[in-house]
Amino acid sequence: MTELKTPYLDVRGVGKRFGAFWALKDVSLRIEAGEFLCFLGPSGCGKTTLLRIIAGLEQQDGGQILQKGRDISGLPSSQRDFGIVFQSYALFPNLNVKDNVGYGLKGKGLARSAVAERVNGLLELVGLAQSGAQYPAQLSGGMQQRVALARALATSPSLLLLDEPLSALDARVRAHLRTELRQLHQRLGVTTIMVTHDQEEALSLADRIVVMNHGVIEQVGTPQTIYQQPCSAFVADFVGKTNPLRARLSGPGRANWHGLELACEHMPHMAHDTDVTLAVRPEDIVLHHEAEHGNDNNNGHNQHPPQASNRLGATVQHLEFLGPFCRISMHLPQNGQTLVADVPTAQALQMGLAAQRRLTIDLPARHIRVYGAHARAN
Q1: pLDDT confidence tier of residue 171, bands split at 50, 70 and 90
Q2: Distance CA 177, CA 171 (A)
């Protein structure tokens, strides 16, 4: 039997309670050296609490934290090998950029020239080589966050912790720093954990995403796995956008959605007549001109098994222009339900989509995932 390799960080059964409220419930996680990991979830899910416990800024009520096999659960934060960057920058306003970055090197026994060399190298790394003499108040938000990042890296920590470091910035700066942060991680290879509630941030930055909800981990996986194979209805709805459809299993590979029989490929092992939630992403719905395809959809009254295309008729209710794509809200006259589809803007223009336009749509069976109320799908 192959022995498991010791991870860089091993979180074992960690729990944290605030009064009667359990912020974390028996959380376990293995983090490999050099990984970029994102804790992703809604406000109050426990992601920041877990980060603070790893940093030693909060004390867990149960469980262990092991770093390279060494139990650091009881160590104060000053004895843990990490650098941390907060959302609020937390720079010293009375110190210039160079002194802010070099602050953590004080008392390390380094020669002044060595400190200066380290600080200058870090400012070069984060693109602030010409800003060393400036003070935080003279810098933009993005520049201040670069200073905070350089300061966190000054002591050469083996673990970098980022607590929503980009959320206070405007969208354009946030997107730019996101790219820089990923490139910086690739150059340095330092193990990094980032807390975020921004799905796009997590999908673009992380090697693996840890999706959290109500103090537990819902799913851990690569961005592609999390998005394309969500293991629960919560993950499917939180990461990206989805159409959640309440239905009932009606046979092998089949579900009845308010009278419409739909073929579904990703079926859980559940009994027939079980209430389920179907999830289909807006970009996976295929739109056709009604004239191009006869309305051979299932109207809910015939007994023939559904086809893999799940072809239905629909009427456009309204369109939302979102730049590169349009979000189409559609009414299904067969069962009175509503679906949302995303199509490229060029396609929407080419099809002449407008309110009250009748369409034929496909809900491909391979893109429909099925979730029970308490069970996770395969």
Answers
A1: confident
A2: 10
Structure tokens at 278: 């179907």
Torsion of CA 130, 133, 135, 140, to 10 degrees: -10
The residue type at 147: V
Q: Which residue has the tokens 């990703």?
A: 266
- For 307, which DSSP code? P
Q: In the sheet that 21-31 helps form, which strands lie side by side, from edge to edge?
A: 21-31, 9-18, 62-67, 70-71
- Report the alpha-carbon distance of residue 192 to residue 179 in Å, rounded: 15
How many separate helices (H) and strands (E) can be counted in the chain? Answer: 9, 20
State phi, psi for 363 to the nearest 5 degrees: -110, 85
pLDDT for 373? 58
- Read off the tokens for 177: 């720093």
* Number of residues written out for the chain: 378
Which of 190-204, 294-308, 310-324 has the lowest average pLDDT? 294-308
Q: How far is the C-alpha of 278 from the C-alpha of 205, rounded, in Å?
A: 29
Q: Which two tokens stand for residue 51?
A: 């980060």
Question: Which residue is listed with tokens 């867990």?
Answer: 60
User: Average of pLDDT values for 264-287?
Assistant: 90
Q: How far, rounded to the nearest angstrom, does the alpha carbon of residue 345 sit from its chain's CA centroid? A: 26
Two structure tokens written together for 7: 């991870």
Residue 378 has pLDDT above 80, yes or no: no
Closest to 90 in 3D by CA, of 48, 47, 144: 144
What's the rounded Cα separation, in Å, for the pair 63 and 261?
A: 47
Q: Is the pLDDT of residue 98 over 80?
A: yes
Predicted pLDDT of residue 375:
43
Q: Say if CB 41 and CB 211 are below 8 A apart.
A: yes
Mean predicted lDDT score pLDDT of the chain: 91
pLDDT reported for residue 295: 47
pTM comes to: 0.89
